[in-house]
Structures are given as structure tokens and as C-alpha cells.
Design goal:
The complex is a heterodimer. Chain A is of the alpha/beta class. Chain A has 11 helices and 12 strands. In chain A, α4 crosses α5, α4 packs parallel to α7 and α5 packs across α7. Chain B is mainly α. Classes of the chains: A alpha/beta, B mainly alpha.
Chain lengths: ~325, ~280
């Protein structure tokens, strides 16, 4: 297994916005990390890369095993050797993820030069190859452009190229398509999927869009309010969601033949980390709520058909 | 940043009407300062008492002073003193201010608080006061004036750079660089400083105008360049006693100061518009 997150908890002072998260990502595999805003997806990503101290958080419990090494035990200097070189990030908003004062080509070059020790010319050749493989026409001309001269989709490809330039084993993409047009979103998602298959990378795809997950992910981990709701392979999860929250998220994907106006959201909102309720954190918004959901925390339990489920009263149960 | 790209905004600024006029005057005065020995019609320090107090004529285009020295020659050499003192002192000030401001903004903590307190304290004194105290300590002359002006403007550039660094530090591309393994020094030199550069340089250009006035003021008090080396300030000082007898002695160097400072400000404004950084200067 390339990445194994086990029972991970994150704390900010007294607040614990993330508790008991476990999931795996293997090479050549795409894991979708889904949930609404505020469910802890990005925090999970930062915890994996050891970037929590930047925002004032710390890992309180659990392990992040990457290729046999527990990253939670490494010092910052050792972690830095992993970032960009073995674990790379694709950030949320490509509009602001590039330095406006540098040509985009230089920003990709420097990753290969620092992490792979390539010469200036070698790095430039790598960059042009990368851009070409990301289906950027006239890669040489584009690499001489400044970020403001490029479109959003083009910038996101540049950000992906920066992530790939260190030839990492794992890419963490934090909502890579939210800031893009729908047509470009599909292109970028397919591109990422293709890269994973061709290069045997692991990809952790963070998104709130179940439609995107259904398109490319092999496995899915559903987060709600800092806890794991359900993990499973993508196909059976979409065919038969067990957790009411998963079912509700899937219900938010528009489908063919829907009557106009019949698309419903999930009533209510994700509670803030400082005000998590006792028991199951989803109970206030859940249609299948029982009495013990108010008081007893449902812990993720492995299920016979694979994956894990944290629910007292799952769908498909009497 | 390539040279062509850094000069592009300057070219854009020079194409606006105001920028063109201002730029032309500045180019003229800089050329005069550089080539002073070639274009000055007379020697700046040779006295010619029989020809003193001559009003502008064909022999002396701008007239002569109380020692019969050619005023045009002295204004050209004065440009040398004024420009070199103000440009060099502001350059030192910008450089030191950037180092100090970047360090404060980047390191933060107790160091940042210490720098901020000192900067805010010196900010509450007028530059002229700081400069006068420093010249009194260092002693009058060109070097003393440069050091005094440099220190007097240090607070401004430290503040501006620090504010820029703080604003840029929270940009997504800094976070992105960090998530790809960039270290502190890399982020400071590759991302923070280049992006903070433009507003600081423009502020430096505008401050050069102020520095010319400050240099002239110190010269007027006899604390700047020492005779016989001419400076616009000391020329005005010697002319002030002769205001009614030979008004051109004070008016002409005064005009040189005024026009040059106005030109610098106009060109600076054109540059601000060309760089589109007005809001960034204001927030600092």
C-alpha cells in the first residue's frame, strides 16, 4: 500500500476537527475523499503532507504511513524531502496558485531542478515534455507566458505539471476543478485519471462533487464533520450506499429525466468543529435517526463486502 | 525578471503625455549631471570678480553669482551633486529597508516587533529632523548628507516592504510552493521579494524627489556639499542675501529643484499607473 492513514485525529488547541480517519491509497488508484465544505477534507490532505503546523494544528493521534514510513514521526526537515519529490499537491484555485511575477515554465523547471537535480536545460526539456503530455499545444510558447496570460484550465494544467515535475508517487489534488468551467473540469479530471493509470501514481482526489467521484474514482471515503461516514469501492458504493449521508450526497447529483425543481439538497448545514454534537454528528440532518444516534458515536466498522461503515441505522438494514 | 520585462512599465509610463514631458526633463538633467565637464561653458570654481552680479546675457546665459561664476555651469554641476546624493542615498535606503522589512515580515515574532517599534518611532519624526541630527553627528559634506538622507527614509521603505511581504505571504502560491517542498529561503528570495519589488521601487523613485529637496535644505543650511563644490541648496543659500540685488542667483537654482522634483513626481505617477499598483501602495 502506498499510503495508509490509520485512525488519524487532528487537534487545534482544544478543538478536534478531525477524528479517527482511516483510508488507503495504492499505486495506480484514485481515492475520492468526499464531503461538504467543513467536513475536514482539506485538513486531511494537510495532515498527510505534514503541513498542519502552518495553520496551527497538529496530529493528535494515528499514523500516516507512506511507502513504509510513518510520516507523523518525521521532523519538518525530513518531511520537506517528501513534499514535491514524493508527495505533490495540486491546489484548489489555479488562478492564485502560480506566482504572478514568474514565467510559468520557470515555475515548473524549478521543481525538477530542486527535487531531481536536473540542469537548467534538462529541466526545461522535462517541462516541455510534461506540458505536451498534458495536451498543451505549443508547449514552448506557453512555458514563456506569465500566469495572467493563460486561461483557468491552462493554469490548472500548469499546476498539475508542477506537481508532476518532481515525479512524485502520490498526488493530492484538493478540489482541482472547483474554480474551472464545467467543460474544462471534465478535461482536467480525465487528464488526472489518465496520468494515474499511465504512470502508476496514487491520487487522492478531494472533492465535494459526487459526479466527479463517480466518473474516475476507484475507491471513495466519505467524510462528515471530521469523521469517516463510509468507505468502499466506488461502483458498489454508488449502486448501494449504506450511510444515509452518502445516499444524500448521491441524491444531489442531477440525473437524466429529473423533473425541473426536483433536485433537493441536504437540509441543514455541517456543524462547526467547535460545536460538534454528541452521538452521530449527522443525526440532526438524518432521516433515519434513532434514539441512540443522539448519544452514541457510531464507530467505523469493517463490513463483510469490504470498506467500512459508521452508522447505527444504515440503509438496507431493517 | 528579465531586463526587457522590468523596463516595459517604464516605457509605458514614458508614452503618456505627462510621463513623456517629465521623462524628457529627467533625461536632460541626468545627462547634464553625467556630462557636466563636457557641456558646462565655464569652470564651476574659478572666481571672476569683475563679472559678478551679471544678469542673464549671451555670454552668461543664466547670469553670474557674487563671485562672477557662471550660474549655468554651477547649476549643471549642482545637478551632479543633488542627483548623485539623492539617488545614492535613496538606493542605500531602499536596499536596507527591503532587507530589514523583508526580515521583519518574514521572521516575525520578537524581531518583527522590535523593528516595527523602532520604525514607528522614527516615523513620528519629520525626515528633516532625523537628517539634521545625523548630519550634526556625522559632520557636514557629501558623505554625511548621503548617510543622513539614507537613514531618514529608511523607515518608509522598511514599512512598505514589511507590509508587502505580509500581504504576499498569505497568497496561495506561497502555500503551493511550500506544499511542493520549497524551503523558507527559497520562498523569500524567489517569491516574496520579487513580488514586493515593484511598489517599493516606485516609492523609492518618489522619495528621490523628496530627497532632492532634503539635500537642497541641508545645502541651504550649509550642511551639504562644501564650497566650492556647488549644490542647488547652497547656491540658493548664498542668493538669499542678494534676493533684491540679483534675484536670479536664488530663483534659478530654486527653479531647477522645483522642476526636477515635479518631473520625478509626475513620472512616478505615470509609473504607478503603468504598473497598476496604486492600491498596493496605499494599503501600506
Amino acid at each position: 500500500m502506498l499510503l495508509s492513514v490509520l485512525d488519524l485525529s487532528v487537534r487545534f488547541g482544544q478543538v478536534e476537527p478531525l477524528s479517527g480517519i482511516s483510508f488507503d491509497v495504492d499505486r495506480g488508484e484514485i481515492l475520492g475523499l468526499v464531503g461538504e465544505s467543513g467536513s475536514g477534507k482539506s485538513l486531511t490532505a494537510m495532515a498527510v503532507a505534514g503541513l498542519l503546523p502552518l495553520v496551527g494544528g497538529r496530529i493528535a493521534q494515528g499514523s500516516v504511513t507512506f511507502d513504509g514510513t510513518d510520516l507523523t514521526r518525521l521532523a519538518e526537515a525530513e518531511l520537506r524531502a517528501y513534499r514535491g519529490r514524493r508527495i505533490a499537491f495540486v491546489t484548489q484555485n489555479p488562478m492564485t496558485a502560480l506566482d504572478p511575477a514568474q514565467r510559468v515554465g520557470e515555475q515548473i523547471d524549478v521543481v525538477a531542478r530542486l527535487h531531481r537535480g536536473q540542469s537548467r536545460q534538462g529541466a526545461r526539456a522535462t517541462t516541455i515534455d510534461l506540458l505536451t503530455s498534458l495536451r498543451i499545444p505549443e508547449a514552448a510558447a506557453i512555458s514563456d507566458a506569465y500566469p495572467h496570460q493563460l486561461s483557468g484550465g491552462m493554469k490548472q494544467r500548469i499546476v498539475i505539471a508542477m506537481a508532476l515535475a518532481g515525479e512524485p508517487d502520490l498526488i493530492i489534488a484538493d478540489e482541482p476543478t472547483t474554480a474551472l468551467d464545467v467543460t474544462v473540469q471534465a478535461q482536467i479530471i480525465h487528464l488526472l485519471g489518465q496520468l494515474v493509470r499511465e504512470r502508476g501514481l496514487g491520487l487522492m482526489l478531494i472533492t465535494h462533487d459526487m459526479g466527479v467521484v463517480a466518473q474516475v474514482c476507484d475507491r471513495v471515503a466519505v467524510l462528515y464533520a471530521g469523521r469517516l461516514a463510509e468507505t468502499h469501492n466506488a461502483a458498489p458504493l454508488f449502486a448501494a450506499p449504506r450511510h444515509p449521508y452518502t445516499a444524500a450526497l448521491i441524491g444531489c447529483i442531477p440525473r437524466e429525466g429529473m423533473a425541473p425543481g426536483s433536485l433537493t439538497g441536504i437540509p441543514g448545514a455541517v456543524p462547526s468543529a467547535a460545536a460538534y454534537s454528541a452521538g452521530c454528528r449527522f443525526h440532526a440532518r438524518c432521516a433515519r435517526m434513532e434514539e441512540r444516534c443522539r448519544t452514541e458515536v457510531p464507530l467505523p466498522a469493517p463490513r463483510p463486502e469490504g470498506g467500512a461503515l459508521a452508522c447505527h441505522h444504515p440503509l438496507g438494514a431493517p | 525578471m528579465s531586463l526587457a520585462r522590468s523596463l516595459a512599465p517604464v516605457a509605458r509610463a514614458a508614452r503618456t503625455p505627462m510621463g513623456a514631458i517629465a521623462g524628457l526633463w529627467l533625461a536632460l538633467i541626468v545627462a547634464a549631471a553625467i556630462f557636466a565637464p563636457l557641456i558646462a561653458p565655464y569652470a564651476y570654481d574659478v572666481q571672476n570678480l569683475p563679472e559678478s552680479f551679471q544678469p542673464p546675457s549671451s555670454a552668461h546665459l543664466l547670469g553670474t553669482d557674487e563671485f562672477g561664476r557662471d550660474l549655468l555651469t554651477r547649476i549643471i554641476y549642482g545637478a551632479r551633486t543633488s542627483l548623485s546624493v539623492s539617488v545614492i542615498s535613496i538606493a542605500i535606503s531602499v536596499f536596507a529597508g527591503m532587507v530589514l522589512g523583508a526580515a521583519a515580515g518574514y521572521i516575525g515574532g520578537a524581531f518583527d516587533r522590535a523593528v516595527t517599534i523602532v520604525v514607528d518611532l522614527s516615523w513620528s519624526f519629520p525626515e528633516i529632523l532625523v537628517a539634521l541630527i545625523l548630519v550634526a553627528i556625522i559632520g557636514p559634506g557629501v558623505t554625511g548628507t548621503m548617510a543622513a538622507i539614507g537613514v531618514a527614509y529608511l523607515a518608509q521603505f522598511t514599512r512598505l516592504t514589511r507590509a508587502q511581504i505580509l500581504a504576499i505571504r498569505s497568497e496561495t502560491y506561497i502555500e503551493a510552493a511550500r506544499s511542493l517542498g520549497a524551503g523558507g529561503r527559497f520562498i523569500l528570495f524567489r517569491h516574496l521579494l520579487p513580488n514586493a519589488l515593484a511598489p517599493v521601487l516606485v516609492a523609492g523613485m518618489l522619495a528621490t524627489g523628496d530627497a532632492i529637496i532634503l539635500e537642497a535644505t541641508l545645502g541651504f543650511f550649509g550642511l551639504g556639499a562644501q564650497p566650492p563644490l556647488p549644490s542647488w541648496g547652497s547656491m540658493m543659500s548664498s542668493g538669499s542675501a542678494l534676493l533684491f540685488k540679483a534675484p536670479w542667483i536664488i530663483i534659478l537654482p530654486g527653479l531647477a529643484v522645483a522642476i526636477t522634483v515635479i518631473a520625478i513626481n509626475l513620472f512616478g505617477d505615470a509609473l504607478i499607473r503603468a504598473l497598476d499598483i496604486k492600491t498596493r501602495l496605499r494599503e501600506a
